[in-house]
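Dear Dr. V.,

Thank you for agreeing to look over these. As mentioned in my earlier message, I'm a first-year student in the group and I'm still getting used to reading structure tokens, so any feedback on how I've presented them would be very welcome. I ran two proteins. I've put each sequence directly above its structure. The first is here:
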Amino acid sequence: MVLSNNAADQRNVDLSLKLFVVLTRALQSIEKQVVRDIRKHHLNLTEFAVLELLFHKGSQPIQKIGQKVLLASSSITYVVDKLEQKKWLVRKASPDDRRVTLAQLTPDGNRLMEAIFPEHSQAINEIMDVLTADEKQNLIEQLKKLGYHAENM
């Protein structure tokens, strides 16, 4: 059966809407599992994201952390304050530019991430384990393509 242009166009629109719903639900389900895993360590998702960034990338300008973990700059100060109170990070002036304040893991923060990140990494792997390595690679490429397209519209 050959679809008319109008029918083919409508099918494409319907598939786009379904893809959006499926993608959103999948992300919500994945995020629910990730949050459950992170909460076991008495952290919320944002706190973990900041600690993970510093653990893997080293000291970061506080002003840039929000962009990297997709958090509003007004919220970053609150999260950094909480992590500083827990003695997991410190603020330091940048040696290159005294106007810039860096967030840096403390030894306690580093020990915490060394202890919990391998378990977290395994939890993520268990969520994604339903896909083969080739399916994961293909999905990564397709989602990047979709994301770049949406970003550049």
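The second protein is here, in the same arrangement:
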Amino acid sequence: MQVDGRPYRTIWLNDDGETVEIIDQTKLPHRFEIARLETMEDAAIAIKDMLVRGAPLIGATAAYGMALAARSDPSNEALSAAYDHLHATRPTAINLRWALDEMMQALSPLSPTERPARAYERAAEIADEDVEINRGIGRAGLPIIEAICAGKRPGETVNILTHCNAGWLATVDWGPATAPIYMAHEAGIPVHVWVDETRPRNQGASLTAWELGHHGVPHTVIADNTGGHLMQHGMVDMVIVGTDRTTASGDVCNKIGTYLKALAARDNSVPFYVGLPSPTIDFRVHDGVKEIPIEQRSGEEVAKITGRTASGDIETVTIVPEKSPVANYAFDVTPARLVTGLVTERGVLAANREAIAAAFPERVQAAA
């Protein structure tokens, strides 16, 4: 997508053919900086400390992390250790394990001398595949926005609410929730996006708003608790969010607060869609509430906030009482019954086991 007229991906191989570069998302929206990953440990830190975030991008970064590991030591023992180290960085996003499994499947049959070149090749393929998956989600979701627009008076805006960042910054490009929005915008459909701030890390306010603004899409940042009010007053035509893990039965695990948006949408008859790249489907999990591990991150993310001061300095301040305990559950699960449709690269699916299995039979077979 575009940053002030220049196309970018979120991750790419450097010109030296060995190191990897990423957009450092911890610096956004106040600074646009590129970070270089030179080792597998660099990739692990980038994932754990959220220089990269979003399930698809985490997967692509892990794949390049395995390539960096193979460049350093392509032995079975070293690759196994790299797999375990990268897998431990984030427990919720299923793309991480999927990408690591793909890399091991590609590298294990080869001799150590053959592995580095194949590792870089497979990592690049995973990144390119992610771009095409998200482009497919955009094509599948665009008719939904077109249909809403067709039901409005000429020139009326289609208002879309999203939570967290499931834009191109969460993927290699396009984004599962924003691809239909970007395509609608480029097709001349008047769209406007309500952007939840998404506490505690403010991925909506700092990332979604940043990327929409730089691409020229009209949007408004709102407090997390505003969505229900907007829906009650007819100011939201549809909700679309992303997912870090989706069960075989259609339960959706996404950033904390997503479940509350789905409840408000159901109460106000607002369609609630999920942009779903197929690698985020976990066919080994069936009950999302009971089976998906929910990451609990540092309480400092809730207790502190970073922003730009009036003097232009970037500072972090504490916003809760010094001795107050803080809990930080990073995700919640939205039951399939609250999901209007899963927007995938193979079309819009009902959120149930039968529809998902029919659309991705090869994934079902692989998980058996």
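From my reading of the second output: The chain is about 40% helix and 20% strand. The mean pLDDT is 95. Does that match how you would interpret it?

Kind regards,
E.
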